[in-house]
UniProtKB/TrEMBL annotation:
General function of this protein: Plays a role in the assembly/stability of the mitochondrial membrane ATP synthase (F(1)F(0) ATP synthase or Complex V).
Family under the similarity heading: Belongs to the FMC1 family.
Record protein name field: Protein FMC1 homolog
Source taxon at top rank: Eukaryota
Pfam family membership, one: Complex1_LYR_2
Cellular component aspect of the GO annotation: mitochondrion
InterPro entries xrefs: FMC1_homologue (IPR037667)
PANTHER family, per database record: PROTEIN FMC1 HOMOLOG
Amino acid sequence: MAALGSPARTLRGLLRELRYLSAATGRPYRDTAAYRYLVKAFRAHRVTSEKLCRAQHELHFQAATYLCLLRSIREHVTLHQEFHGKGERSVEESAGLVGLTLPCQPGGKGWEP
């Protein structure tokens, strides 16, 4: 498993994802319950004088996992919007997607010799 990095970096990443979400809703991210909960939890689990603070490491791991989930969902939605199928395509459009062109009929459609 990869290293988690610093808890401050994880918190900044979570707040960045909250800003992305709040841009879609139009509300400031600092007014959300998620923001208040994150700040309160990170303040409550600061490193103390203990040598090993298990609760702080556990919170950091859960926060990093949640950050990965939020980023993945945002990237998935972006990719889905970009590459989602647009319904049935004509033969000409399908040929154009792969770089081909259809042969032209001399008299156009319905031309008979």
